[in-house]
Amino acid sequence: MTIKNLMIITVFLALVGRTSAQGNAGILDPTFNNTGTLVLNLDQFDLYQDIKVQPDGKILAVGTSMTPSYTAYLVVSRFLQDGSIDQSFAVNGHYTYDQNLENMSYKCLLKPDGKILIGGHTTDYTNWQMLVIQLTEEGMPDPDFGTTGVSFLDLGAGEEILSDLELQSDGKILISGYLQNAQYQNAPIVVRLLENGSLDPNFGNSGIATIPITETDNEFTAVSVQSDGKIVAAGHISNGLSWFSLLIARFDENGILDTGYGTEGVVNLNLNNVDDEFFDMEVTAGNETILCGFTVFQADYTYHLLVMKFDENGQAVSDFGNSGIVIIGDTYYSFGDDLAIQPDGKSLLPVVQEPLTCR
Predict the structure, then answer these.
(1) Cα separation, 261 vs 119, whole angstroms
(2) Are residues 205 and 252 in contact, defined by beta-carbon separation less than 8 angstroms?
(3) How far apart, in Å, are the Cα atoms of 47 and each of 11, 36, 103, 173, 225?
(4) Cβ within 8 Å of residue 319, ≥6 positions away
(5) Is the CA virtual torsion 265, 256, 199, 231 positive or negative?
(6) Under 8 Å between Cβ of 249 and 232
């Protein structure tokens, strides 16, 4: 997975979350950079992939910048509530990692102790490694994690990509993505790390859990933990050449497939006999799973935003949308890339309505 077309600038939008003297909810917040919008230009190309808000209101953003010579380096930035760069974080507000030709980050997590986890990959285009970095609250590499703050995961012979991070209640770290196996297939994987960044030998097969596959292109793009400790991962699975189907799998706390979920632990579902894929998911308090992504119709062969809900046994929830399925709008190239559940149980997701700029 490499960036094919990067945005030249990164844009932040801040919205007023509730009705106040500032105006109606959902409008741009003028207290953020005076306009509600922040445009940041760090290098030749820039793209932030994930954003988290700290308990103190400061804003973390992780992503990738690229130099004019096309070397991609990982970036973590922190902003104050008003949109200005937090100069106390790392070096002039930014932490960067550039130890290879391509260094990219996709996800970040805030730990209860204030430390920051960043997940991505690094490669010289011959060797690939998943990359997990732990920073202190001040934005410096944590010496108690990995090798001087960096955990390198070389899990297979070929390309290895990290797509999502999740933190268990015991502090262990879950990673989802894929690795290239001995048959040159991209195998969907869930990896578990100990708190110090090393592989958990008691999870799956030497720290790695996967499912049986038959085709080339498969991936877990999201991972979550149920209230009972079971682990749910979702993404896509190939059922034929360039034909993706929706994929969900559930593992027990030890990384073993839960055969009581779906069909022998796996949901393999295609809606329209073309391409379907999940990008993100959330697990509800009742261990139901809400997922977003896209489906492709045979009539137009373009992306349509998809939201689905499954019960704790891996069956579509009949009273959600149309038999568990919601397809939103008729704009071509629409998909859901991220998902959150509000305190009232309603789902909130951004809708992308242009051709993909990354992935």
Answers:
(1) 28
(2) no
(3) 9, 19, 13, 25, 28
(4) none
(5) positive
(6) yes
Whether 320 shows a pLDDT value over 70: the answer reads yes
**CA pair distance 137, 135, nearest whole angstrom:** 7
pLDDT in tens, 184-228: 899 999 999 999 999 999 999 999 999 999 999 999 999 999 999
| Single-letter amino acid, residue 326 | V
Look up tokens 């005076």; give the residue.
34
DSSP code for 28: B
- In the block, residue with structure tokens 């094919």: 4
- Three-state DSSP class for residue 359: coil
Termini Cα distance of the chain: 6
Tally: H helices and E strands in the chain: 0, 26
Whole-structure pTM value: 0.89
- What is the DSSP-derived secondary structure letter of residue 121? E
For the chain, how long is the longest CA-to-CA vector?
61
Calpha distance 296→305 (Å, rounded)? 9
Residue 181, classified by CB atoms within 10 Å of its CB into exposed (0-12), middle (13-18) or buried (19+), is middle
